[in-house]
């Protein structure tokens, strides 16, 4: 279906209506339409329910590993000092990112401040059945899940209550570097509106605007109870993050996600352990969990100068990433490497992951069929998958610059359909293959 259904399922008027809850939202609508035209794809993506279940299984298995004291002791050995502070809050919006390989989903990386969750909750409400074949699948699905926005608010309250018990949560700061220039500023605004609708004051700010003192963390004189951290300074080492670092170490504010969460989940060096059966056995991981994790995580190795010739010889089957990086910054497909870039990789702190090419979604863009690459993001909180979404793109890594690309809702296609639904899907396949 990802190859055959090129219909438009995004109802843009419905999307704009979903955004128009507040008198201030006219600017938000213009922001999305004019300066971020490729944030949302025109159609949904299709994934087998079997593969969705497999991703959920990998997530659950990795969560069991990360909960182990032996895992935490091991990965905190190479973590920055700020990550060693214990915390009861676990971190909102973990992003488990998968590629759908020929043998099923494979985990590419884990992120601790995965963006797009709230945008995708709204996007999912603006979809229509784009053709009879898709309608057949949608009709075979169970009813709509519990309201995602309510679950997201409950998640932040859970973080707060884990650290502060029954004390009221009064004010949240949504923090990122120069937030007014961030591509996902619309999501910051949506979170601000969401928190306000639930009686919580919310502000969007740069970390340098925060002040930490004996009285606690504040923004322009207003006390801040909780920080929704969207920074990529994961350990709060930058001078701009000084107030956050001080508040985090002193426990003066609840910060989520925080440096410890990044160290436990998202440091790319962790993938080396997760893909190494011997290392996992050494940590005491049970065999069933070990099998699920090592099947779901592509083999990952720490790059070192001593094995430079070996990595260069195998480069076409590898993807290179900085150990402490994020997104696509500094990441390279091995078959695109030059000697100069490879020398920079050897001089840096990199991991090399077995290449799992992304699957594809064919859409019609400007009247012509275009094959877009697709990755699958699982938004996870305390081991529970809250939402699965796709990102469609062209190029080496995910981006929001691709015509026709962007975030796309995932429709899980049941593995067992009724005869009517099956006949409709067969009709689609017949049509795509040129049979009529």
Can you summarize this structure?
With 436 residues, the chain is α+β, with helices and mostly antiparallel strands.
Verbal overview:
The two termini are 16 Å apart. 37% of the residues lie in helices and 23% in strands. The chain is globular, with a radius of gyration of 22 Å. The protein has one domain. By secondary structure, the chain is of the alpha+beta class. The chain has helices at residues 12-19, 25-35, 49-66, 69-76, 117-124, 132-140, 148-164, 185-197, 242-250, 259-266, 269-274, 277-283, 287-296, 308-313, 339-347, 419-432; strands spanning 45-48, 94-101, 104-111, 171-175, 201-205, 210-213, 216-219, 222-223, 226-229, 254-256, 300-302, 318-322, 332-333, 350-354, 359-365, 368-381, 384-393, 406-413. Strands 1, 2, 3, 15, 16, 17 and 18 form a seven-stranded mixed beta sheet that branches. Strands 5-4-9-10 form a four-stranded parallel beta sheet, with helices on one face. The protein has a four-stranded antiparallel beta sheet with strand order 11-14-12-13. Helix 3 crosses helix 13 and helix 6 (132-140) runs antiparallel to helix 16 (419-432). The longest helix is centred in the N-terminal third of the chain and has 18 residues, at 49-66. The chain has 16 helices and 18 strands.
